[in-house]
Amino acid sequence: MKKELPWWKKGIIYQIYPRSFMDLNSDGIGDLEGITRQLDYLSDLGIDAIWLSPIYQSPNVDFGYDVANYVDVDQEFGTLQHFDQLVTAAHQRNIKIILDLVLNHTSDQHPWFVESRKSKDNPYHDWYMWHDPSPKGGPPNNWLSWFGGGGWEYDQHLDQYYFHMFYKEQPDLNWRNPQVRQAMLDVYRFWLDRGVDGFRMDVFNMYFKDKDLRDNPLGGKGPRKFNHQLHLYDMSQPEMHPLLQEIRQLLDSYGEKYMVGETFYSSPQQAAAYIGDDQLHAGFDFSMLGRKFSAPFFRKAIKDWLSALDEKWPNFVLNNHDNSRSATRYKAKKDDKVLKVSATMLLTLVGTPFLYYGEEIGMRDIFLWRHQVLDPVSKRYWPLLPPRDGCRSPMQWDGTDFAGFSNAKPWLPVHPASEQRNVIVQQSDPASLLHFYKNLITIRRAHSALHSGSMEMIDESNPSILAYTRQSDEETVLVALNFTKKAANFVLPVQYREKSWNVILSQHLQEQETTTGTKFALQPLETLILRLN
Ligand code: GLC
Ligand code: CA
Questions:
Q1: Alpha carbon distances (Å) from 84 to 26, 168, 196
Q2: Atom of ligand 1 nearest to the CA of 65
Q3: Is 240 inside a domain boundary?
Q4: Residue among 262, 285, 336, 365 flagged as catalytic
Q5: Measured in angstroms, how far is the CA atom of residue 21 from the centroid of ligand 2?
Q6: Residue 169 domain-assigned?
Q7: Does pLDDT of 1 surpass 60?
Q8: Residues 156 and 94 occupy one common structural domain
Q9: 437 assigned to some structural domain
Q10: Which residue has its alpha carbon closest to ligand 1 atom 12?
């Protein structure tokens, strides 16, 4: 008998930014009970798993990515009991729960760090990267913070520096200390025991830094000083592989659990090297999160990622909480046609698609004046880089004052177009983006070629149309997407010419109709899915 693929291969994963999904207790901040309340919506959409951005206790310098307690829920989001209720209610609907583990650094308010800075002989001192000034004075080496400025913060009382890859309120842990390693494995156990199905590992390739603290060589370019160093020594050290193996063994001892890694600042090859049967189940490649909207751009991104992965299982993603939303990046018109093209791509490619809340209704970034920006790194780089707050605005459920997200003023403004662009409006419009996503998800589920099959690019020099076939033991499906605003043709490979195809999705052919030919014409921004008869 053929082996069924595991859920995380066949499934679709939906990222929720908990502060912004649904606020049930009217304090303007999304909460766990709110997410539980909306599970039927997600179940109806057809997703298989939810990745929750961090829900742990946090002073919110980096909105949850600065954790002050790994084994409790922040009171803003609710309680552990609310969390258990969410897991149970999600599982009842066959939806898995994936937590975001931020283990490269803690908050500076975490009791471990508070202890560690008390004295050099404090038992927790070595849990963080404390180092003496360089012999010439000043920081131990030239490492920088991704969020701007130097990576070392001086502590007068200790006459030492600690390292922080992100904000100074996010000190990096010393993963070479076996106690840190044990404490973190215990964090995994804590949540696995509570029934979670997997983890998204935040910037995991940064856990280990060079033991000798060597300076990074200069080189590279980009808008930040950070881009002007070659990051040989402050990330991606070989010690990460055995650690991933250890974590994987722990996960495997709990049954079919999942871990997906955010490989920070890396090439597709580097990200792929951490994936495998004894390491991560999957990793992210962020090449697609650019502004470009063209067949050649996506073709290259897809091919590069797939060739780096070799036979490993891919993920594809167009949106997350760190980047401007795709609708904004592509300057999508109100008709959402370009978003229908990118959605069709995302949901018919080989591998696991990741959606970001609100993507299915085409949410746009909110515009913020400088004084409204809350994310510190966005303040620092304003207006050079788009603020990350832009993509974190409240979910647009309906056309009421606060978009049905809350009865109180939300922590970030609601998008001004929420009256027209929201779930309720789109649910009642069969031509809406929401219906389009739901339809694609249904199509993906119904066709083994799409959720489990192999993939092959066709007509690869076509400047307008991205086209590929998907194939399983049962069927062959063809996908063709016109990324341009002009009609365009694509050519079938020889073996498919003059064969008969059934129309699954098209804007100019009727569904269920059959079609044939050597060349097919697509209308502007048309998305075509055919099945070989
Ligand atoms: C990851 C997160 C980002 C966070 C950073 C530091 O890149 O996605 O939101 O600011 O890690 O934890
Ligand atoms: Ca709330």
A1: 21, 33, 9
A2: 12
A3: yes
A4: 262
A5: 10
A6: no
A7: no
A8: no
A9: yes
A10: 65
What's the pLDDT at 223? 85
Active site residue 262: yes
Element (H, E) at 244: helix 240-252
Does 428 lie in the same domain as 284? yes
Long-range contacts of 23-26 (CB under 8 A, 24+ apart): 23/394, 23/405, 23/406, 23/407, 23/408, 23/410, 26/406, 26/407, 26/408
Report, in this order, helix, strand and coil percent for the chain, each rounded to 5: 30, 20, 50
Q: What is the pTM of this model?
A: 0.98
Domain assignment of residue 524, yes or no? yes
CATH number at residue 150: 3.90.400.10
- Of the residues 31, 48, 172, 202, only one is catalytic, namely 202
Q: Are residues 344 and 372 in the same domain?
A: yes
Q: Looking up tokens 């929750």, which residue turns up?
A: 52
Q: Choose which residue among 58, 65, 204, 392 to substitute to test ligand 1 binding: the one with the highest number of ligand atoms within 8 A of its C-beta.
A: 65
> Of the bound ligands, which one is closest to the alpha carbon of residue 20?
2
Question: Over the stretch 227-246, which tens digit does the pLDDT of each residue have?
Answer: 999 999 999 999 999 999 99
Same domain, yes or no, for 260 and 366?
yes
Instruction: Give per-residue pLDDT as tens, 264-319.
Output: 999 999 999 999 999 999 999 999 999 999 999 999 999 999 999 999 999 999 99
Locate the ligand 1 atom nearest the alpha carbon of residue 105 and give its number: 12
Give the total number of structural domains in the chain.
3
Closest ligand 1 atom to 264 CA:
7
Pocket of ligand 1 (CB under 6 A): 62, 65, 102, 166, 202-203, 262, 321-322
Measured in angstroms, how far is the CA atom of residue 91 from the centroid of ligand 1?
Answer: 28
375 and 476 in a common domain = no
Same domain, 98 and 116: no
Instruction: Identify the domain containing residue 146 by its residue range.
Output: 111-163
